[in-house]
Amino acid sequence: MRPLVCCLLITLCVPCSAYAQTGDDAAGRSPRGALTRALVLPGWGQLYNGQPLKAAVVWAGLGGLGTGVILQHRRYLQLRHAAIYTVCIDTDPGTTCADPAYARYAEEAAPYEGYRADALRNLRDRARRNRDLFLVGTAAGVALQALDAYVSAHLLSFDVDERLSVQLVPGPGGATWVLRMSLP
To answer: Half-sphere exposure (CA, 13 Å, Cβ side) for 43?
Structure first.
């Protein structure tokens, strides 16, 4: 993990002129430019590289992860308020819970009526853990799409023609990978 982070930091610090000899393709795209754009706005690096389908996949994936963060955070808050209200009702049903500040807690606790406070706390903790996992997944998605934009920019000038091919061919003992190279 540490070498990957170091490589990304070094890439950001190297001036664009360092790519003039090796990293630019015919359109003037640089790996550093793709990485910077991908970190500023996820999917922009893929668009910069001329890969709109990848950008759409990035947006859909990060949109789904972001939606998961929002939904799990709302569920966490609802369960938190329900647990607070349930503890209040269990310990002091007449005085503190009649306070108008607890009115919204009562509304949020309505779907969980009959649950014990410890069960609500367990559900709350599970919702918080799921929210945190979605946050980690979102951060990992942003990092991976930036890395993809960087690597794709490096491979833009890679020559791919019909002289080099890999095929999956059925054989007597099962499927076999065949690499074919035609030399000039």
So the answer is: 12
